[in-house]
Predict the 3D structure of the following.
Amino acid sequence: MRTDVAQPVRLADYRPPDYLIDTVVLDVLLHDTETRVRAKLSIRPNPAGRAGAPLVLDGDELTAKKILLDGQDISPETIFVAPDQLTLASPPRQPFVLEIETEINPSANTKLMGLYRSGPVYCTQCEAEGFRRITYFLDRPDVLSVYTTRIEAAVSEAPILLSNGNKIDAGPIDGTDRHFAVWHDPFPKPSYLFALVGGDLGSIHDEFTTVSGRKVALGIYVEHGKEKSAVYAMDALKRSMAWDETAFGREYDLDMFNIVAVSSFNMGAMENKGLNVFNDKYVLALPETATDTDYANIEAVIAHEYFHNWTGNRITCRDWFQLCLKEGLTVFRDHEFSADQRSRAVRRIADVRTLRAAQFPEDAGPLAHNVRPDTYLEINNFYTATIYEKGSEIIRMLKVLIGETAFRAGMDLYFDRYDGTAATIENFISCFAEVSHRDLTQFSRWYHQAGTPLVEAQTSYDAAKQTFTLDLKQSCKPTPGQDHKEPFVIPIELGLVAADGAPIALQTGTEDGASADELARGVLELSTPERRVTFCDVATPPVASLLRGFSAPVRLSQSVNENELIALVAHDSDSFNRWQAAQTYATRLLLRSVDLVRSGGKPCEDEAFGEALYRAIESNIGDPAFAAQVISLPSEADMAREIGENVDPDAIHVAKQALRAALGRQLAPILLQTYERLAPEGAYSPDAAAAGRRALRTACLDLYAAGVPDEGGALAQRQFETAQTMTDEIAALGILTHVPGERREQALDTFYQRHSSEPLVIDKWFILQATIPEKGTLARVKKLMEHPAFSLTNPNRVRSLIGAFASGNQTQFNAADGSGYHFLAEIVIGLDRTNPQVAARLLAAFKSWRALESKRSALAEAALRRVAQVNDLSADVKDIAGRSLA
Ligand SMILES: [Zn+2]
């Protein structure tokens, strides 16, 4: 077992390892309950470590069967072996070979870390600290070794045997029903990138020729019968490989690249060198089982894991505090890839929606942490939106600040200088400082200070002088452990828009000026608490379009009136800000309505916003994906975050529904007309243009049904009955599900009957039901937990039913009687015994509890305390509960 009282790990305590392990030779004899692992480790003292230090190898629930040092038994006084540690008191001062044989039980491994079984398949997950559940090791990312892995298994059980690198040998074991395969990975790697798969799997194969002409054999392994569903993933893989060559000059380096899809997986996917292991939801797609969003996610996750080959694998992290070095950077790379494959503006809007939905609440609550943390209790809890999404935003800002050419030069230098090493954020940033000749010390605060900065912008126009003055002010609220924040470097991309929509050239005088470079690029740098910039030769009062493209992960509060927002929706040359102006307008309307509802009144009405949306639909006929984003209102969670304190989720829900209904009524004719105009024609294609048409069609139907429920419901019913694709089918079912009654239950039944053999589709069925904003939903969720399609041991099922309820159902999870909180607490306590990682993720749904109105926050706190008081909690859950309550 892990130590009961978890000790915090601190960045300041980092010390190089005392020993290095140059090569690892593994011999794994797969067996469902008694797998034998023989590890032969070539170890030597690290010149940078402490001479003569004891050798302490990590373990986790291991049973050692045999240990030899240079082929000899070890005297019992000099070795200490426990399930979580192996210590050699005085190892040789010269290189030596340690042979360790362990026995593990993959079938009993419900934590899904180390070697486990996903159905009939043997697979591994080693990041962050899973390799120590396979054998004793220096299980830390700065120990890089060359691995050779022999796997042996019964042919009938596991005809496919895969590991990292290239396959160098394979064959039957004479006289038995067993066979073996040997894999060799020539690239030194940390243990968290080790992987092994054994099973009876179907596969598809293809080939990619790299820019220097080397042929790479590609394989995707899936459950038998699912081969066709992997074709899109293969296509995405080949596009990713080609893109990384042109966009970043990165070529693939092995002869083989394999992907395996498994159904039981804690994470989305894992970038093990040459052998990516995927949650099957990010591989499998057919038009009739996957939505456009699923296709886009598959493309993004395939790309993300592939891109890790350079950012994460070739250059890895020195320690887990540097997690954002590989994750933030690789998210940035996959965002860029998706933007190039699809519409850049629409991708940016989607990415910002994700950032605001997942990261902003984290940054505003008790779980706030630095993009590079200083300390952790359980590293598994740091695979967060802050590390990933905000980490990516930092890289994006860096590119905006130093420009595209210097950014690429900095990346090239980083690859060149740190290839084959375990690096730090300082190493990374130093490359960009060097090529851009800029001091990036202050910029680096983004890594060291948590919290979302607030930028307040005041503007004033002087008609006599024809000047326009912009006053910017930055601030950041305290976060746990950080009461005071130093100013950030915030790049603010901007433009001035005249009333008729014409752009106004940016010019400043000597007083309150901006640099020539800032004006040329349209980017102001806010690096002081306050800054004033006065633009001159401004003939008419303009509207400032600030934070274009969402140039920094901040909250912006701008003195701009409703008419000016409507002008931006119509005219801003920056698509992102056209969308943002509509969101800001809707947010203001909703905030006013929430106040009215809470004081017993009716939500407010506003025809001007409807008219602006009308024009947005009309003027974006050529870009339906963008129009769909403009008419999609802020979510209830967005509103809760915007309100920030004393939040009443019921009032938000009432306000939102009222606005949807009013817009639906006002816009009914154009919504219906657009819906009909965009009817599907021809065969399904997952490309961005076709997906965009479906997205707008869905958004129109959704709003129409909110405004005109009878006709809209009938239309949804017809679409549900005739849909040829999952995108259309699930959109229609979503609308039907929100109307109580027999029709809903029938539609849900029909959907289940149609798709009962597809667990990933049934996950959608769980999500829809778990997010119904009605009183009976918790009872429905509890009943669904007894459904044969549900399983508490499969993370995808848990996330779809319980996770969707906790994170996606604002009114019912936050029910005023505390029933939602109580339910989640009980689930977390139970699940912690089998899968602590998934349990801890669920518990993080409480991250905004302090922002709730007092009655709800008291009930949420009680539920958190109930969890925190349980004996024998895992470090994962204990950490989240403790920090949430701190
Ligand atoms: Zn990643």
Observations:
- Residues 575-598 form the longest helix (24 residues).
- The chain is about 40% helix and 20% strand.
